[in-house]
Specification:
This protein has 395 residues and is of the alpha/beta class. The chain has two domains: 6-243, Metallo-beta-lactamase, Chain A (4-Layer Sandwich); 251-386, 3-Layer(aba) Sandwich (Rossmann fold), CATH 3.40.50.360. The protein has helices spanning 59-69, 85-88, 91-97, 107-117, 186-198, 202-213, 231-243, 260-274, 289-296, 315-327, 346-354, 373-392, and strands spanning 6-9, 12-14, 17-19, 24-25, 29-30, 35-37, 40-43, 48-51, 77-79, 102-105, 124-126, 132-134, 139-144, 154-158, 163-165, 219-220, 247-254, 278-283, 299-305, 308-309, 312-313, 333-340, 360-368. The longest helix has 20 residues, at 373-392. It binds flavin mononucleotide and fe (ii) ion (2 copies). One fe (ii) ion (FE2) binds at residues 82, 84, 149, 168.
């Protein structure tokens, strides 16, 4: 069977694979629409380069696709923008098939290629910011972009075609579509992906965005999801997200066993809605981490609702609180709602986890048992206080 290869520009090909069936990435991130591993072949008049590879298990597909447009045994370069196995995992197979190909990577990438893939140093060609490779009428330029998504990452840019290969950066987890205008909910998918993968590295993302501002870009070809033939669509979003711009919006993340915490949460959420604040509610026992992470990208505050279980936060809330701490969203304010049966403990632990984040805890309502009218009034008052803070701050 002929392998499907897509010519994006004269001499620039998509040779990636779509993985419709994969459902959980990194043991953490749900993939309701699968994902893609986009690899690219750039053919100059003299030399040929592969940019990134695909997830292990798809090596045969990749080599077959390369074979449609070039001799896989005659590659000159394999560019490793990132060492994570979803992009670099097939590099050993490609290097084995193509004996003279050099692996082009950053100095940190070289260490990782040794540790993860046992590539020998003789096969590597280390590049740094601004270095170029002349393929004959096609020039690859390398852009240092550390921590997008790991310390070793870089971008590759084809000068003549104004095509950018930013690997994980500017991507989205979906197997749907080839181009941005073919996927209706792509902005939402991209926001979830940013929250899950790039948000902890917002500062690195901001630095990369400054570098990209000076670059003429006609096509952004990331390693996951559709290609942006309207680059400004994703660049304008990333400018906001990497800068940590927030909306007058609250993420309400809660879990409740017998409905007491939930009652407080409902009052708080409805009070916030009534005061012109956007509210995104996530029930934590069933939450999709991607939905939650996506909403955290531009929310200004979080309300955490959780009862005490065994002297601590309900485990589902504990997990969410840790996620908030590690994903480093640009949240400014927090409030906690909780119910306990005898000794409590949830509130104390919420404070311990949120304390180091720098998020201002505006207040908490902790009740013994089920809420009475006074407790309900306290929840409403706390929500009003939060709404005032949210509306009073610019971003
Ligand atoms: C499995 C389990 C463990 C609990 N452990 C504690 C505890 O250690 N300390 C405490 O004060 N209450 C504990 N409770 C009581 C709950 O915190 C209390 O029933 C609370 O009102 C539940 O709020 P909810 O209706 O929002 O689920 C526990 C309840 C359950 C079901
Ligand atoms: Fe990655
Ligand atoms: Fe990736």
């Amino acid at each position: 069977m002929k392998a499907a290869v897509i010519e994006l520009r004269d001499g620039v090909y998509w040779v990636g694979v779509k993985d419709w069936g994969w459902r959980l990435f990194d043991g953490l991130i749900p993939l309701p629409h699968g994902t893609s591993y986009n690899a690219y072949l750039v053919k100059g008049s003299a030399k040929t380069a592969l940019v990134d590879s695909v997830n292990p298990g798809f090596e045969g597909d990749l080599l077959a696709k390369i074979g449609e447009v070039a001799d896989p045994a005659e590659l000159d370069y394999v560019v490793m923008n990132h060492a994570e196995p979803d992009h670099a995992g097939s590099i050993p197979a490609v290097l084995a098939a193509s004996p003279k190909a050099k692996l082009v990577l950053t100095a940190k990438g070289a260490d990782m290629a040794t540790r993860y893939f046992r590539v020998s140093r003789e096969r590597m060609q280390v590049v740094k910011e601004g270095d170029t490779l002349d393929l004959g009428g096609k020039t690859l330029r390398f852009i240092d972009a550390p921590f997008l998504h790991w310390p070793e990452t870089m971008f590759t840019y084809v000068i003549e075609d104004k095509v950018l290969f930013p690997c994980d950066f500017l991507g989205a987890h979906t197997a749907a579509g080839l181009y941005d205008d073919e996927v209706a909910d792509l902005a939402v998918r991209a926001q979830m992906y940013f929250g899950e993968i790039m948000m902890p590295f917002r500062k690195a993302g901001e630095r990369a965005m400054k570098k990209l501002a000076d670059l003429p870009i006609e096509l952004i070809a990331p390693s996951h999801g559709p290609l942006w033939r309207h680059p400004e669509r994703i660049l304008s979003l990333y400018r906001k997200w990497t800068a940590g711009e927030t909306l007058p919006k609250v993420v309400v993340a809660y879990v409740s066993m017998w409905g007491s915490t939930e009652r407080l949460v409902r009052i708080a959420a409805e009070t916030l809605l009534g005061q012109g604040v956007q509210v995104a509610v996530h029930e934590l026992a069933h939450v999709d981490v991607g939905d939650l992470a996506g909403d955290l990208v531009d929310a200004r505050a979080i309300v955490l609702g959780a009862p005490t279980v065994l002297g601590a936060l309900h485990p589902a809330a504990l997990n969410a609180a840790y996620l908030v701490r590690t994903l480093k969203p640009p949240l400014r304010y927090a409030a906690v709602l909780s119910s306990y049966g005898w000794g409590g403990g949830a509130l104390r632990q919420a404070g311990e986890i949120l304390g180091p984040t720098g998020i201002e805890v505006v207040g908490a309502v902790e009740i013994h048992g089920a809420p009475d009218a006074d407790a309900e009034a306290q929840a409403a008052a706390l929500a009003t206080q939060l709404a005032t803070k949210i509306r009073g701050s610019e971003r």
